[in-house]
Amino acid sequence: MADHTRSLLALAALTAAALAAAPASAKILHFHAALDGKYGDAPTGSAATGKARITVDTDRRRVSVDLDVVGIAPAALWKKLVAAPIGPIHLHKYATAAGGASVLALPLPYGADYRATRRGLHVTMKDYDYAAGAALLKSTLSFDDFVAAMRSGLIILNVHTEAHNPGEISGKVAEG
Are 52 and 70 in contact, with CB atoms under 8 Å apart? Predict the structure, then answer.
């Protein structure tokens, strides 16, 4: 084998090794949740429903949420939380039978991202910085733990209203 061919093979092997050792590019994870008044430890019986699509950019540590709620108007949201920096809609990680504490994970602060619709409300948050949102709640859940909890089905999305402060509708977040 000629020296030139050996050099090319060595270069190809080094390139392949470098690519294998390089950090992975950004990974976008997709999640969804169906919300209703029947879910959880304290079902409200509310006829309201919701559908959320959530994406997580693991490289940039950003979260995007697209939530449609039918049967709850913005005026019905819990005023105490509407006025608070954390807002009336949150992602929570609840304690499991295996242990661990319940933790507020990520809020959806009330503001321009909320809008009334003919049948309820719509919330769109794009590229929301996880660290900034978690800091609003003083959350102890790291980004990596948040992603692991999302992937394990341990995160719940709640909509808090005047009628049901703990959450009128909620739903388990699932990958896919």
Answer: no
- The region that residue 3 occupies, defined by phi over 0 for left and psi between -120 and 50 for alpha, beta otherwise, is alpha
Contacting residues for 39 by C-beta, under 8 A, at least 6 apart: 156, 169, 170, 171, 172
CATH code for residues 24-175: 2.60.40
Q: Is 176 exposed, middle or buried (0-12, 13-18, 19+ CB in 10 A)?
A: exposed
Cα–Cα dist 51/123, whole Å: 11
Residue appearing with tokens 């809609």:
89
pLDDT score recorded for residue 168: 96
> What's 96's DSSP letter?
B
Return the domain boundaries, the chain: 24-175
pTM of the model: 0.81
**SS3 state at 8:** helix
Q: Give every CB contact of residue 165 below 8 A, 6+ residues apart in sequence.
A: 78, 80
pLDDT tens track for 101-146: 778 899 999 999 999 999 999 999 999 999 999 999 888 899 999 9
User: What is the spatial distance between Cα 9 and Cα 32, in angstroms, rounded to a whole number?
Assistant: 46
Give the closest residue to 91 by CA, choosing from 29, 133, 126. 133
